[in-house]
From TrEMBL:
It comes from Lachancea quebecensis. GO terms for cellular component: cytoplasm. Keywords: Oxidoreductase. Belongs to the aldehyde dehydrogenase family. This is Aldehyde dehydrogenase. Residues 32-454 form the Aldehyde dehydrogenase domain. The active site is at residues 229, 266.
């Protein structure tokens, strides 16, 4: 299916209308006795309409993703829809609390008799740009967060999943008010026009580090604030002191992180750094675990493919070039679905291997061995600094702390991989090359609001203000310090 792109010349007008809708809404709610209560009511309404627009069309969404890249039905449910529902429901539940000004206990004596609070106010009209790999969750979770913050949204879904992007546009334009949401379809030209528009009050971008830098440059021209959720190579450490009795379970957790969505996951376990004393057991167990996960891999298996032919060809070449030893499940059919690559564990890999250059974003999992942990840490920091996530399998607390102290990462899981994405009350985001800013839970609300300090001053304190007012006589500095 080809996707109808929005005409580039219409984009500025769409942005203008989105901004105008926000401003009109502010005027409307200001007419109510309690503008905040009215604002809350409208935000809850739009969040509910977003929730039901997805929930009521679940089967069609699963089908669209299947058409786009043979996305596993099970993965669509557990890795996109359930997580999205939980997030929207959490926003609906917590919003009445979040929208209230937060009272501050100010320690400066100057405000001893003041009423100090932080009011998280809407930003205005925000741009959300999303990637192809989890197009429902990574598109609509920020959209929901922006709604929770009271903003109007222009959403640019990914052009690489045309069936899903078209379907979501159709559903949302009929079920969510256009005063809250506008959808712009397109690729580089359309996104460029959007990010060059000076009217946005925020850009929330999820995608590659390379494009993230372009977004940041354009945003800087108008001082538009942004959140960048980017990529990177997330390492897994299996250290000398990890208990061998847990190795099979560990491999299951690591393979789940590496091969879900055929490796097309920003926080995939991208490569494993393993102490040489552990590699023998890992080699013995790996084939077994692959066979347990995929007793048969053929066209009928519920297994995701690469997003398009270019990604497929690029990944295939990368795998052909590796000098490592490849291990795949035992029963892989000779003919798989179009653009499908089997899960492949690769042993005996060196740091200069084709699989160790950039984010793999394919179902490959290279293993490099180390002897000296300091040396392994230096290699990570030299080749792939500031990953989006890091995973540690170690039974030694000090060893774990040592890695965590020396390797900066967006997130860190000890004893598992990938599932931290579903944590609802913890921030999700990268660090430098892997992103800036975060969202999820109350961090989503912060990402889409401005923290305005509000101080109410009583008048009965006027007598005490003598010290700050002219004339500045020699005794005044002493009074101020008293
Ligand atoms: P991408 O950067 O190619 O595309 C993302 C969005 O940017 C799309 O909507 C696309 O139309 C737009 N875009 C592409 N090139 C552009 C350009 N030159 N100028 C302006 N806009 C442009 O990313 P992708 O291939 O869709 O997704 C994969 C990448 O995203 C991986 O690097 C992955 O790690 C990252 N990612 C990060 C997260 C996260 O939460 N941190 C989540 C998912 C994916």
């Amino acid at each position: 299916m080809s996707l109808q792109y929005t005409c580039v010349d219409d984009i500025d007008e769409i942005v203008k209308t989105s901004k105008a809708s926000f401003e009109e809404r502010q005027v409307e709610i200001s007419k109510f006795k309690s503008p905040r209560s009215q604002d809350l009511k409208l935000r809850l309404e739009v969040l509910k309409s977003l929730y039901y627009s997805v929930k009521d069309h679940e089967a069609e969404i699963i089908e669209a993703l299947l058409k786009d890249f043979k996305r596993s039905k099970h993965e669509t449910v557990i890795m996109e829809l359930v997580v999205l529902y939980n997030s929207i429901l959490q926003y609906i539940k917590k919003l009445p609390q979040w929208i209230k000004p937060e009272k501050i206990k100010e320690s400066s004596a100057l405000f001893m008799f003041s009423n100090v609070s932080v009011d998280r106010i809407s930003l205005g009209s925000v741009l959300v740009i999303s990637p192809f790999n989890y197009p429902v969750l990574l598109g609509l979770e920020p959209v929901a967060a922006a709604f929770a913050g009271g903003n109007s949204v222009v959403w640019k879904p990914s052009e690489l999943v045309p069936n899903t992007s078209r379907l979501l546009e159709d559903i949302l334009t009929s079920e969510v008010s256009s005063k809250w949401l506008k959808v712009v379809q397109g690729a580089v030209a359309e996104t460029t026009r959007l990010i060059q528009n000076p009217s946005f009050d925020k850009i929330f971008y999820t995608g590659s580090t390379k494009v993230g830098a372009i977004v940041a440059q354009e945003a800087a021209k108008h001082l538009t604030p942004y959140t960048l959720e980017l990529g990177g190579k997330s390492p897994v450490f299996i250290t000398e002191h990890f208990s061998q009795s847990n190795m099979r379970a560990a491999l299951k957790r690591i393979f789940f992180g590496a091969f879900s969505n055929s490796g097309q996951t920003c926080v995939a376990s991208d490569y494993v750094i393993v102490h040489e004393s552990q590699i023998k057991l890992i080699k013995e167990l790996s084939k077994d675990v692959l066979d347990e996960f995929w007793p048969l891999l053929n066209k009928e298996t519920d297994y995701t493919c690469m997003v398009h032919e270019t990604a497929y060809e690029g990944a295939k070449k990368k795998l052909e070039r590796t000098n490592g030893t490849k291990v795949q499940p035992s029963n892989v059919a000779a003919e798989l679905s179009k653009n499908c690559l089997p899960p492949t564990v690769v042993f005996d890999v060196e740091w200069n291997d084709s699989l160790m250059k950039e984010e793999n974003f394919a179902p490959f999992l290279p293993f490099v061995t180390y002897v000296d942990l300091d040396d392994a840490i230096e290699k990570v920091n030299h080749y792939h600094k500031n990953p989006l996530a890091m995973y540690i399998f170690s039974a030694d607390k000090h060893e774990t702390e040592l890695i965590m102290t020396r390797v900066k990462s967006g997130a860190c899981m000890i004893g598992d991989t990938l599932v931290h994405v579903a944590a609802q009350d913890a921030p999700f985001g990268g660090v430098r090359q892997s992103g800036s800013g975060s969202y999820h839970g109350k961090w989503s609300y912060s990402a889409f609001t401005h923290e305005r300090t509000v101080i109410r001053q009583p008048f009965w304190t006027e007598l005490m203000n003598g010290v700050r007012n002219p004339p500045y006589t020699p005794s005044k500095p002493k009074m101020a310090q008293a």
